[in-house]
TrEMBL record:
Its EC number is 2.3.1.-. Keywords: Acyltransferase, Lipoyl, Transferase, Transit peptide. Residues 206-219 have a biased composition (Low complexity). Its cofactor is (R)-lipoate. Residues 127-138, 193-203 have a biased composition (Basic and acidic residues). It is found in: Mitochondrion matrix. This is Dihydrolipoamide acetyltransferase component of pyruvate dehydrogenase complex. Residues 142-179 form the Peripheral subunit-binding (PSBD) domain.
Length: 460
């Protein structure tokens, strides 16, 4: 039989043998597997193909990364279960791929007995709690060549990394997490991000920052001059943002703004910065803002609640999973620091460093991006004094922080002093939170930050 490749695949659900030496230029032949995009959970029905790591005609081995797909929640790497040759990519980069539909065809060099297997999906980073580091002596580690290379480049022993992939396989995210936890350092970007980053305007790296951490102040974007309008579908995170913000618009927002004098905190931070950096963790103001919020939430649990409109129930959340709006290469994302009520300022800083490393390389996983209970948005690290933050449903409160400015103020003796002033803007769901509660919480948060030593009294 001489069959052309398209016909082979179209007319059979079973693996087929391609016999034609004319139409199949590679002399070697085997069954063709049509990999379907399997269910990646969270009710996700479609994803955007961010990047192919292979092209048609490439030879692949088991567990080699085939492509990276992006849902509205996270990035996921899809890997091969077979040794074989890529025969067809069903989508181009940036296309939307549907769960359950063919993604890639691979001509395998194995017998038909294994040809019924499904594709392998490597899930992104798991929650911090799941990453306990342990020595696995004598245990054969499973990782793709790319992941092994990444570990090698960063002097990481694979035996020390806990794999969160299928059957304990070590994923790229595991290496990133391991490195971020151990050193607070950033990895060299993956080829994909290297390409993307090289197209982005270069960012200003403050001299005092360790080279490993993401730069904070993006340079002015390149001007775009276009001769025609461009219309494109909203995809991935942007699509999720449209959905969430449309839902948020239904919430009656109560707003409250105040001014906080951070002069003492500025002095404390400069005392602690060196110590923290010596331990490999950058210490910005954010960990103090987050910890002060958590201490305040202990007194006002209604602000750390979630509202279920349909059942008209309010759930007071035990965990303070404090989200922080993050300006990432993929746009606005809101990862959260889990269980802040149990963490020291240093531990929050370390976790923040980890999230920033992942955010800057497009590696934030579902567990980092879900489960938030209260949010802070530090727009001041970009600029601006005031903001009008929008609540992230089902949360009920959010705070936006402006740029810290050195401004003249009077001290308690009536003397004119240089003060570090921060403006905070709170929004609360007025269906369940009244203005007085929001104001009392804000006062307490301000007191902790204006007299940071007082936080020590309440730290567990
Ligand atoms: N005012 C002045 N300086 C500030 C500041 C503020 N409000 N917030 C941070 N900085 C300083 C930091 O102290 C740090 O300076 P340093 O090197 O002297 O320590 C520098 O700016 C960089 O800080 P950054 O790396 O941004 O860390 P961070 O912990 O303060 O903030 C994020 C982390 C993730 C919140 C921040 O990087 C970010 O993405 N902000 C944008 C949030 C956003 O987009 N909000 C809008 C949502 S709609």
């Amino acid at each position: 039989n001489i069959l052309d490749y398209e016909t082979c695949v179209k007319h059979s659900k079973e693996p087929l043998l391609v016999f034609s030496p004319l139409l199949c230029p590679v002399a070697w032949s085997g069954p063709i597997m049509q990999f379907k995009l399997s269910d990646i959970g969270e009710g996700i029905m479609e994803v955007v193909v961010k990047e192919w790591y292979v092209k048609e005609g490439d030879k692949v081995s088991q567990f080699d990364s085939i492509c990276e797909v992006q849902s509205d929640k996270a990035s996921v790497t899809i890997t091969s279960r077979y040794d074989g040759v890529i025969r067809r990519l069903h989508y181009a980069a940036d296309d939307t791929a549907l769960v359950g539909k063919p993604l890639v065809d691979i001509e395998t060099d194995t017998g038909p007995e294994v040809a019924q297997e499904e594709d392998v999906v490597e899930t992104p980073a798991m929650s911090r709690e799941e990453h306990t580091h342990q020595e696995i002596k004598g245990h054969k580690t499973q990782a793709t060549p790319a992941v092994r290379r990444l570990a090698l480049e960063n002097n990481i022993k694979l035996s020390e990394v806990v794999g969160t992939g299928k059957d304990g396989r070590i994923l790229k995210e595991d290496i990133l997490n391991f490195l971020a936890k151990q050193t607070g350092a950033i990895l060299p970007p993956s080829p994909f991000h290297e390409t993307r980053e090289s197209q982005r305007p270069k960012e200003v790296q403050p001299a005092s920052l360790p080279a490993s951490l993401p730069a904070s102040l993006p340079a002015r974007p390149q001007p775009v001059l276009s001769s025609q309008d461009v219309t494109e579908p909203l995809k991935g995170f942007h699509r999720a943002m449209m959905k969430t913000m449309t839902a948020a618009l239904k919430i009656p927002h109560f707003g409250l703004c105040d001014e906080v004098d951070l002069s003492r905190l500025a002095a404390l931070r400069s005392d602690l910065r060196g110590i923290s950096e010596a331990r490999g963790v950058k210490l910005s103001y954010m960990p103090f803002f987050i910890k002060a919020a958590s201490l305040g939430l202990l007194h006002f649990p209604v602000l750390n609640a979630s509202l279920d409109e349909a059942s008209q129930n309010i759930t007071y959340k035990a965990a303070h999973n404090i989200g922080l709006a993050m300006d990432t290469s993929q746009g606005l994302l809101v990862p959260n620091v889990k269980n802040v009520q149990l963490l020291s300022v240093f531990e929050i800083a370390r976790e923040l460093n980890r999230l920033q490393v992942l955010g800057s390389s497009g590696q934030l996983g579902t567990s980092d991006l879900t489960g938030g209970t209260f949010t802070l948005s530090n727009i001041g690290s970009i600029g601006g004094t005031y903001a009008k933050p929008v609540i992230l449903p089902p949360e009920v409160a959010i705070g936006a922080l402006g740029k810290i400015q050195i401004l003249p103020r009077f001290d308690s003796n009536g003397e004119l002093v240089k003060a570090h002033i921060l403006n905070v803007s709170w929004s609360a769901d007025h269906r369940v939170i009244d203005g007085a509660t929001m104001c009392r919480f804000s006062n307490l948060w301000r007191q902790y930050l204006e007299n940071p030593a007082s936080m020590v009294l309440d730290l567990k």
